[in-house]
Write a structure and sequence with these properties.
Number of strands: 3
Helix content: 25-40%
Strand content: 15-25%
Number of helices: 4
Shape: globular
Oligomer: single chain
Radius of gyration: 12 Å
Amino acid sequence: MLSNIRVVLVGTSHPGNIGSTARAMKTMGLSNLYLAEPRVEPDGQSIALAAGASDILKNLTTVDSLQDAIADCRLVIATS
């Protein structure tokens, strides 16, 4: 069931946030990370802050818009 959950970061401007998100996702058993309209790409800082969740970074999906990220989702819950 957790494989059906997708975490989407929109307009991410700090690579550390990508890594920290991956680490938190791994802790919760989540693995599907999407970057929508990212301003930066994952880098060494992302990997360092992922702390054991680099597999999530390697398998993330980058899309051009939030609409693309959630196009096939049936339920969307957002926060900021």
